[in-house]
Structure formats: structure tokens, C-alpha cells
């Protein structure tokens, strides 16, 4: 089962209706039932997103490792002549396509994960409105802004955003994509231009650096757009922690 969605319109900001004078508020039991149902729905949806991210990353690594093994066997038998270059220039672009698709899909899954976490934080906040005495027992965030989402995602306190980004699987996929692109450029240069080893290494490094820079720039823009789309309704008061 995969987690696939068609792109839809941005979420609308629906005003929260206030209880009018003389109107009975929703009973606590019904509120808890509705909140619990939504909570479990978000948990299941988040699980699907995580499952697809791991599946797509594993598929990419399996495809890439299989291609490298096949190329090494062909090169050992053929002596790295024309058949090796032909197979490499056919297989490696396919690997790069799989890698780019994996990276794009993981970005969409991460955005969905952030939306689900923000929703669950709002629900926890609603739980505390119903039973504020339970606040000491909540270890996850109850606010839907960046600090609250970071608490629920278990981001270590004081960790620089750059450190958190380079430790993520999407960054690993980005680096592998850049290396594969550099390898394609180096193999093409060796076969069609006949460049020497120093020039080939520099060319491969340059292509890899350009591809990585483009991917990082695109990821940064997507993160900024995602942060703007997630407008917090219940921001974290200064000095609050989990369950506060």
C-alpha cells in the first residue's frame, strides 16, 4: 500500500465558530470521541507517509547497489571497454531518475508529516482544555508552531537546523543523486572526449557540486513555503515546554 495523493488546493482557514448565548456546548464525551477519531486518523496517515519514505529509500539504494555490482562484473569481464560504457550510460541515468523521484516524494511525505504533527499537537491542546490537570503527563508538544512541532518530532534541544537536516534521509538521497550525476558525467567524458584522470575527477566533482547545490536550493525553498503554509493557531508561549 502506498501513500499517493493528487495535488489539491491549499487548505482553507476555516473560522472556529463560537458558542452563541443560549446554545448548548458540545458534550465532553462527544468532543473526546471526535478528537480521538481524528487523532488516530492522523497517526495512521503519518504511518503511511513514513512507510512510503522508507520503502522508496530502500528501493533506491537496492537499485543503485545492484547497478554498481552489475557494472563491476561487466567491467571485470570486458576490461572496461565499450560494453561497459554502454551499460553504464543506460543504467546510471535510470538510477538517477529513481533517486530524483525518491527525493521529491520524500519531500512531499515530510510536509505531510509536519501537517499531521501540527494537527495532533492541536488535538493534545484540546485534550488539555478538557482536562488541564493532565498537563504534567504529556511529553509531546501541544502547540502547532515550529517549536511545538519540533518537540513532537523529538528534535534534540539546542540542535542547529543544519545538523538536523544533514542527518535526515532526504539529505542522504540528495548526496547520492549528486554522486550518480557526477559519475554519469565522468563516464561520458571518458568515453566520448577521452579526458585524463585529473580532468575527469574535476568534472565529476563539479557536476556533483552543481546538482547538490540545485537540490539544496530547491529543498530550502520548499521548507520556507511549507513553514508559511503551516500558519500556527496555537503558538508556544515563551518558556513553555511539553504539555505546558
Description:
This protein has one domain (28-229). The protein has helices at residues 28-78, 82-130, 146-152, 161-166, 169-192, 197-229. With 244 residues, it is an all-alpha fold. Helix content is 70%, strand content 0%. The chain has six helices and no strands. Helix 1 (28-78) runs antiparallel to helix 2 (82-130). The two termini are 37 Å apart.
Brief synopsis:
With 244 residues, this protein is mostly helical.
Percentage beta strand: under 5%
Task: Report low-confidence residues grouped into runs of 5 or more.
Answer: 1-16
Q: Report the sheet with the most strands, covering strand number, pairing sense and barrel closure.
A: none
Number of helices: 6
Q: How confident overall, as mean pLDDT?
A: 86
Q: How many domains, in number, for the residues? A: 1
Helix content: 55-70%
Number of strands: 0
* Structural class by SSE content: mainly alpha
The outline comes out as: elongated
Radius of gyration: 24 Å
Give, in order, the helices and strands.
Answer: HHHHHH
Give the N-terminus to C-terminus distance in angstroms: 37 Å
Amino acid at each position: 500500500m502506498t501513500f499517493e495523493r493528487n495535488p489539491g488546493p491549499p487548505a482553507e482557514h476555516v473560522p472556529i465558530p463560537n458558542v452563541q448565548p443560549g446554545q448548548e456546548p458540545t458534550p465532553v464525551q462527544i468532543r473526546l470521541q471526535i478528537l480521538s477519531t481524528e487523532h488516530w486518523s492522523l497517526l495512521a496517515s503519518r504511518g503511511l507517509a513514513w512507510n512510503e519514505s522508507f520503502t522508496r529509500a530502500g528501493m533506491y539504494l537496492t537499485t543503485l547497489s545492484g547497478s554498481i555490482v552489475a557494472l563491476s562484473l561487466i567491467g571485470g569481464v570486458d576490461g572496461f571497454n565499450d560494453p561497459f560504457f554502454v551499460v553504464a550510460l543506460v543504467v546510471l541515468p535510470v538510477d538517477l531518475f529513481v533517486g530524483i523521484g525518491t527525493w521529491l516524494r520524500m519531500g512531499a511525505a515530510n510536509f505531510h508529516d509536519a501537517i499531521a504533527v501540527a494537527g495532533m499537537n492541536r488535538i493534545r491542546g484540546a485534550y488539555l482544555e478538557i482536562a488541564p490537570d493532565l498537563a504534567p503527563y504529556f511529553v509531546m508538544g501541544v502547540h502547532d508552531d515550529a517549536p511545538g512541532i519540533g518537540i513532537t518530532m523529538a528534535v534534540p534541544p539546542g540542535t542547529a537546523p543544519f545538523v538536523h537536516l544533514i542527518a535526515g534521509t532526504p539529505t542522504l538521497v540528495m548526496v547520492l543523486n549528486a554522486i550518480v550525476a557526477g559519475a554519469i558525467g565522468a563516464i561520458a567524458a571518458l568515453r566520448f572526449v577521452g579526458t585524463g584522470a585529473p580532468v575527469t575527477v574535476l568534472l565529476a566533482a563539479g557536476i556533483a557540486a552543481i546538482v547538490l547545490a540545485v537540490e539544496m536550493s530547491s529543498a530550502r525553498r520548499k521548507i520556507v513555503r511549507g513553514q508559511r503554509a503551516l500558519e500556527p493557531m496555537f503558538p508556544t508561549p515563551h518558556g513553555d515546554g511539553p504539555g505546558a
